[in-house]
């Protein structure tokens, strides 16, 4: 009951994930990313252990295809898993286990991979990838957000979305953007509101961490 994507910004080097579903807690279970390394999505009957394991494989020097093959080979219940990986070079790979429910689909495009399961139709990932590519000058988080919105407009799950996550990594070990919505009446509008409010201050949050002397004083 999930549709998601991994994206890469060639201009900044950022990696990011965006995901939404009609269940709660999707941001804690599905997307995993590390600056300068890549990202992993693990969904359907989700095994959150696969995310850190996939990043470890990328860190060891595996390509996206090699990391995916290793994950599938080492996971006894892989027939229930839907996985996507992007490596540091922007190469992508995905896996659909035979028990992953329809409608399921995945699209690999320049700078992204979009996929989903138990969707209203198989056009959803294509709509996401198209929206992601439409304006490469926008921040990666905005492009990911637009992709989720396009996926929902294309049919999404066909059920109300309760949780959503927007995750971007860039240079630091901590996330550049990490916004999550849970148990919302309308998860994507709620995530859009959070991102619009966070966007003007996202660089300031990094400054506060790495150079607090240079941080702007709070507005009282």
Task: Provide a quick synopsis of the model.
The chain has seven helices and ten strands. It has helices at 26-29, 50-59, 64-73, 124-133, 140-153, 187-198, 202-210; strands at residues 2-8, 15-21, 31-34, 38-44, 81-86, 92-96, 105-109, 112-117, 163-169, 177-181. The model has no long low-confidence stretch (mean pLDDT 96).
Give an overview in words.
This protein is of the alpha+beta class. The protein contains seven helices and ten strands. Strands 7-8-1-2-9-10 form a six-stranded antiparallel sheet, with helices on one face. Strand 9 and strand 10 (177-181) form a beta hairpin. Helix 2 packs across helix 3 (64-73), helix 4 (124-133) packs antiparallel against helix 5 (140-153) and helix 5 (140-153) runs antiparallel to helix 6 (187-198). The longest helix is centred in the middle third of the chain and has 14 residues, at 140-153. The chain is globular. The termini are far apart. The relative contact order is 0.18.
Write the layout of secondary structure elements.
Elements: E1 2-8, E2 15-21, H1 26-29, E3 31-34, E4 38-44, H2 50-59, H3 64-73, E5 81-86, E6 92-96, E7 105-109, E8 112-117, H4 124-133, H5 140-153, E9 163-169, E10 177-181, H6 187-198, H7 202-210
Antiparallel strand pairs: 1-2, 1-8, 2-9, 3-4, 4-5, 5-6, 7-8, 9-10
Features:
single chain, 220 residues, globular
């Amino acid at each position: 009951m999930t549709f998601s994507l991994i994206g890469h910004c060639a201009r900044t080097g950022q990696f990011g994930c965006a995901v939404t579903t009609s269940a709660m807690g999707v941001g804690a279970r599905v997307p995993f990313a590390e600056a300068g390394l890549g990202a992993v999505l693990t969904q359907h009957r989700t095994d959150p252990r696969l995310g850190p394991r996939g990043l470890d494989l990328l860190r060891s020097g595996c390509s996206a295809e090699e990391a995916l093959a290793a994950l599938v080979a080492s996971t006894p219940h892989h027939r229930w898993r839907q996985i996507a990986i992007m490596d540091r070079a922007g190469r992508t790979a995905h896996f659909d286990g035979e028990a992953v429910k329809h409608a399921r689909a995945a699209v690999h495009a320049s700078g992204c991979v979009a996929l989903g399961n138990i969707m209203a139709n198989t056009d959803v990932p294509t709509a996401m990838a198209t929206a992601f590519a439409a304006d490469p000058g926008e921040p990666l988080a905005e492009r990911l957000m637009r992709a989720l919105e396009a996926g929902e407009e294309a049919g999404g799950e066909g059920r109300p979305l309760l949780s959503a996550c927007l995750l971007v990594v860039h240079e630091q070990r901590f996330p550049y953007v990490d916004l999550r919505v849970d148990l919302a009446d309308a998860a994507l509008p709620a995530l859009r509101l959070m991102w619009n409010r966070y966007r003007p201050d996202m660089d300031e949050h990094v400054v506060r961490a790495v150079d607090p002397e240079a941080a702007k004083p709070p507005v009282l």
